[in-house]
């Protein structure tokens, strides 16, 4: 019998723990947050209601939502020290590196940083939910030589983000499309960045350390960085009518097509139809159908030729581009949403913790004796 254990590289197909936060059902191509289908939340709830749901397990009452929103608004501002630190970042810094550093700095400022009790972790999660968008908007403006715009406590979550980035609030259809994208990006079981946050939490480390690590994981183009890569790819294609030829040329080079494929969904990402619908709304609002027409050609060819379906990043990229965001902001915007899912998993891991420490099967050199330096030639 072989002494090689059952190695699952990439942990493909491995159930590492239980979780009550969300459920991905590839067989029916669906996703629920605390039992609610995401499509239902997109049509009948808001992103901050969804954040409350992920953290508390239930949708808020009107009174609970008012209190939640009051707390979020009150925590949006960054400290003067952090604003000075942001201004010192290299102008060439990638916005995900800037955000990773900003969150790490928030940890150094947070009076409850070392307290990993559930109550303290929840308060820190709220501070991160409120401050991360402010940091994303500020670093974007500073990188362009513009002064940051302070958060406006009189505005709801999504409207305030546009206010801090652009200095104005767009039409309600744009806000709705953004709110839907935030709900869809919020949570997705044990994806790489979420599991990173759980792994850090498993050693009894703190919320800011877990979220800083998760940001590092999400940055990668195989994960959250794909939404930026999708837009760069679409912009490489001169027009929809040459999209098929452009794609076939990539097939010849066995290159990955960003925004396609998924480790869990093999017959399509449950979130894509909803995000595609709102990306099409954005195309109509802006009057620019190019990106969605090119996307349709790519999706059709990938399906017929490779049987590979688009994932959420594929429609999210053009949607954010049509909203007017700079491409390097796309993955930081993903963080503004996923902080809710990450924090829910940090709380869950902390409540029933076991140090995460897998095994490795050794395939290196067989055991040997050390030869003293004098004899090593
Ligand atoms: C996210 O896990 C989550 O839930 C993540 C996420 C979330 O909400 O947190 O959904 C967000 O990260 C979405 C994924 C974004 N990444 C990309 O769009 C990057 C491109 N996609 C691929 O890198 C890939 O599809 C992955 C990484 C997403 C999944 O990788 P797997 O599971 O290891 O891929 P696989 O084993 O199923 O691939 C099977 C075959 C392979 O070919 P062979 O080696 O068998 O010949 O399909 C090929 C792959 O090369 N393939 C692709 C492809 N995706 C898979 N070929 C070309 N382009 C692609 N995009």
From TrEMBL:
Keywords: Transferase, Tricarboxylic acid cycle. It comes from the Bacteria. This is Citrate synthase. PROSITE patterns: CITRATE_SYNTHASE (PS00480). The lineage of its organism: Bacteria, Pseudomonadati, Pseudomonadota, Alphaproteobacteria, Acetobacterales. Belongs to the citrate synthase family. It holds the Pfam family Citrate_synt. It catalyses: oxaloacetate + acetyl-CoA + H2O = citrate + CoA + H(+). Pathway: Carbohydrate metabolism; tricarboxylic acid cycle; isocitrate from oxaloacetate: step 1/2. The keyword Transferase applies.
């Amino acid at each position: 019998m072989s002494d090689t254990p059952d190695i699952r590289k990439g942990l493909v197909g491995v159930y590492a723990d239980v979780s009550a936060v969300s459920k991905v059902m590839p067989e029916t191509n669906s996703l629920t947050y605390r039992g609610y289908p995401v499509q239902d939340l997109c049509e009948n709830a808001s992103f901050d209601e969804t954040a409350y749901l992920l953290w508390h397990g239930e949708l808020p009452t009107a009174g609970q939502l008012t209190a939640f929103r009051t707390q979020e608004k009150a925590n949006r501002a960054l400290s003067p020290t952090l604003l000075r630190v942001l201004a010192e970042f290299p102008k060439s810094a990638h916005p995900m590196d800037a955000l990773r550093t900003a969150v790490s700095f928030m940890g150094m400022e947070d009076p409850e940083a070392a307290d990993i009790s559930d109550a303290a972790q929840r308060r820190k999660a709220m501070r991160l939910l409120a401050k991360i968008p402010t940091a994303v908007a500020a670093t974007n403006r500073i990188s362009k030589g513009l002064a940051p715009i302070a958060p406006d406590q009189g505005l709801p979550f999504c409207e305030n983000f546009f206010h801090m980035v652009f200095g104005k609030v767009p039409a309600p259809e744009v806000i709705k499309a953004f709110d839907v994208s935030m709900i869809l990006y919020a949570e997705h079981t044990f994806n790489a960045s979420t599991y990173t946050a759980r792994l850090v939490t498993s050693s009894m480390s703190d919320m800011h350390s877990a979220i800083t690590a998760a940001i590092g994981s999400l940055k990668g183009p195989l994960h959250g960085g794909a939404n930026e890569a999708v837009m760069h790819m679409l912009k490489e294609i001169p027009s929809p009518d040459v999209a098929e030829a452009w794609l076939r040329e990539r097939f010849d080079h066995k290159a990955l097509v960003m925004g396609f494929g998924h480790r869990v969904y093999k017959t399509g990402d449950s979130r894509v139809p909803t995000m595609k619908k709102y990306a099409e709304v954005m195309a109509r609002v802006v009057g620019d159908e190019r990106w969605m027409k090119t996307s349709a050609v790519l999706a059709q060819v990938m399906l017929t030729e490779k049987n590979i379906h688009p994932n959420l990043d594929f429609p999210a990229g053009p949607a954010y581009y049509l909203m007017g965001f700079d491409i390097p902001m796309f993955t930081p915007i993903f963080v503004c949403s996923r902080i809710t899912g990450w924090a829910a998993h940090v709380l869950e891991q902390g409540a029933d913790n076991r140090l995460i420490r897998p095994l490795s099967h050794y395939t290196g050199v067989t055991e040997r004796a050390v030869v003293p330096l004098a004899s090593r030639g």
